[in-house]
Design brief:
With about 425 residues, the chain is an alpha+beta fold. Helix 2 runs antiparallel to helix 5. It is globular and about 65 Å long. About 45% of the residues are buried. The N terminus is likely disordered. Bound molecules: fe (ii) ion (FE2). Fe (ii) ion (FE2) binds next to helix 5. The site of fe (ii) ion has 4 residues, from helix 5.
Length: about 425
């Protein structure tokens, strides 16, 4: 779907929709600042790894997005805050112009964190003026909607990247205090749900915002399959480790095994186990946004790559679901779960009720699928620079579904396609098993 049609403003409802768009815009902008509040200015400068970005960069880049794509086009007499910021904070928009190399974002000590806060204030005031001016063209509204969703994606990345940074710190900082009312639960019994499949419509149904990569809606043939009621748990992953999963090349794709050997992987990212310790004696620890804590055996495994997810599934005698199986299974389920607004900031154990329903489909961890990230039949990227948003990444990546515990509320939906390279695991990524029926 083109961003031109991302927001549908019927004539009679325009002012009401604009008011709500304005409210959501300002709420989204405020949440980004709120997420950065527990961090020192020093925390906000450092780039934890080549895939991550500093907090300060996320805050500035999302601001630049509104300035470059909305304000300079639609707000009369808008004054660009600082011409040099475009080079610093353009991410990957080739058609906009040259930019600071991604891997060197952590070297940007200037502009300072204070300058970036002032930049956000300048742009927020301008966005306020634009929304209040009346006569907001539908294209501007569509781009503001895209900017809100873009900033929400960066809110998740901000937290993901802060975790990566804090995990490498000897003092193991705590981003947020754990809720003492939330206790580890016993694992719910795994069940399997059967689906008949068929020729099934897939992709965004046109109701509300969606990224262009979620359409066009089209038919897919889905063969009969079964899907696990809940995500693979830490305890199940510990079984894979104890059975030599990371030392058995026959379980792995060739690229996966090469990565295991090159990276020395023997556990999910952020796991640390003391010599001879077991998970049940609290001897296996994992860094999280709540600090360095014993692993909850019943909680979903998190921070595993596609290669690891694929190897685990093979070891367990199952496979990963395709993105179409996942989307079919999610039909009719409420889009509710452990997302950012729940403030868990970590994936949670499944509910204990044995009701034969799929659990943890939304929130907790992004679920790796077996599907390569490819365009749907008839896909066309949006015209202009924002057409670079999704389409140009449709090569060598895999689709993940369902959102995570740090996905902003309202940002995930059944047709949402996240995508990462198969070796990446710093995001909140896990898996659910599937099988042919
Ligand atoms: Fe971005």
């Amino acid at each position: 779907m083109s961003v031109r049609t991302a927001v549908r403003a019927e004539p009679g409802r325009r002012s009401q929709e604009r008011a709500s768009l304005h409210d959501r815009l300002m709420e989204t902008r405020a949440l980004s600042s709120e997420l950065a509040r527990p961090l020192s200015d020093e925390d906000q400068v450092v780039q934890a790894n080549d895939d991550a970005s500093p907090t300060k960069w996320h805050l500035a880049h999302t601001t630049w997005f509104f300035e470059a794509f909305v304000l300079t086009r639609f707000l009369q007499a808008y004054r660009v805050y600082d011409e040099s910021f475009e080079y610093c904070f353009n991410s990957y928009y080739e058609s906009v112009g040259p930019r600071h190399p991604r891997r060197m974002r952590g070297l940007l000590t200037r502009p300072s964190a204070g300058d970036v806060r002032a930049y956000r204030e300048h742009v927020d005031q301008a966005l306020d003026r634009l929304c209040a001016s009346g006569g907001l063209p539908p294209e501007a509204a569509a781009l503001i909607e895209l900017g809100i969703n873009h900033e929400q994606q960066h809110q998740e990345l901000l937290l993901t990247d802060i975790l990566s940074l804090f995990a490498g710190e000897p003092l193991k900082p705590v981003y947020a205090a754990a809720d003492p009312a939330l206790r580890a639960a016993a694992p719910a019994p795994l069940e399997w749900i059967a689906f008949q499949g068929g020729v099934v419509p897939m992709g965004h149904d046109g109701d509300g915002f969606a990224y262009d990569n979620e359409g066009p809606r089209h038919d897919q043939l889905v063969r009969p399959f079964t899907l696990a009621t809940h995500l693979v748990s830490n305890e199940e992953w510990a079984g894979f480790i104890e059975d030599g999963g990371y030392r058995t090349p026959s379980l792995w794709l060739a690229d996966g095994w090469a990565t295991v050997e090159a990276q020395g992987w023997d556990a999910p990212l952020y796991w640390e186990h003391a010599q001879g310790a077991t998970m049940h004696k609290g001897g296996t620890m994992q860094m999280s946004l709540l600090g360095f804590r014993p692993i909850d055996p019943a909680a979903p495994v998190c921070h595993v790559s596609y290669y690891e997810a694929d190897a685990f599934a093979r070891w367990a005698g199952y496979r990963l679901p395709t993105e179409f199986e996942w989307e079919l299974a999610a039909d009719g389920l409420p889009v509710a779960g452990s997302t950012l607004g729940q403030k868990h900031l970590r994936p949670m154990a499944p509910a204990l009720d044995r009701d034969g329903q799929l659990k943890q489909m939304f929130g907790d961890v992004w679920e790796w699928t077996a599907s390569a990230y490819l365009p749907y039949p008839g896909f066309k990227a949006a015209p202009g620079a924002v057409g670079e948003y999704n389409g140009k990444f449709m090569c060598n990546q895999f689709v993940l579904r369902g959102g995570s515990c740090v996905t902003p509320d309202g940002h995930v939906r059944r047709s949402y396609r996240n995508f990462f390279y198969p070796h990446q695991r710093w995001q909140f990524m896990g898996l659910r098993l599937a099988a042919d029926a």
